[in-house]
Hints:
The protein has 316 residues and is α+β, with helices and mostly antiparallel strands. It has eight helices and nine strands.
Amino acid sequence: MRIFSDIDLSPNIQKFLPLIKTEYLFNNKYGLKHPGAIFNTSIGKVENALLDFFDSYKEFGLLKFEEAHEKHNDALLKTYKIFLYSLREYVDDCFHVIKCFIPPFQKEIDERNQFLWIRKSKDVEANDLLDEIKDYKNYLDNIVNELKHNNGILGSISLYDSENPKEHCAGYFIANVVNNRYQPVEKIHPEWNKQATGFSYRRDIFYNMYHVFYLGELVLDFIKKKTVKEMHPIVSAAPGKKKLIYEQMMLMPRYFLPDEYEKAIPSISLTQENTLKLEYPSRLSIKPNRLNRVKLTHSGDGYTREFKTLYAIKLR
């Protein structure tokens, strides 16, 4: 699917929410903010988390790779963890936006989980949306639950060219202990060719930001079904920090981790006219993986002594 955002580089839903007439809203009945306020706060958290990540990531192209890895690895993992949490919160906030357009029932639904609340509402359009987004929600649920509730750890993997540090593929994995050995959690990182795997930052960021916009499109379609189909969006001509995010994304080297070359490729591009184009799957070309060195790091727990190697590669 292709998604376009013009001028202000915002999800299109953000340009329509200020236009909604109060007669269509039930947020006050549920003690919720205006759906536009909910969305603005949520997307702001995602964008700020990604900007903080790029503040550390950009150093990879400026220093010798070993030095960059040692100096900035902790900051990368810390800021990326916040980014992952902000994405999960964004999904929940989109569910709150949806709830604002569903009339209260004669018998109140006692359910704090907004996903389950919508399921129980039996609203046809809302449940169709949940079906569309369930795979992405499950992906985030597995990650956040492992880190927040199962004491999982974040580790980093970096493949790079020893002669040119700008040619690299940095990434992460989520690990936990199985049979007294730390290894990537398989429900998050399925084995590939009998090898443990991770996620490259490049593919993961593009994949996640595509879905931020995609979920916004689904919610916008839902809102139009509940209100009026034809609305003229409010567009700001000043993208501000949003442009910095996509400029940094464009600078990331087009390398993936070995198994990711067999997956669908997400693509996001920014034109000179400040039009954002998002596509998944795309036909984007990526560089063959000729990186010849690897760094693998993780934080220990003081008890577990063994760790499974990713991609069956010899560490140097």
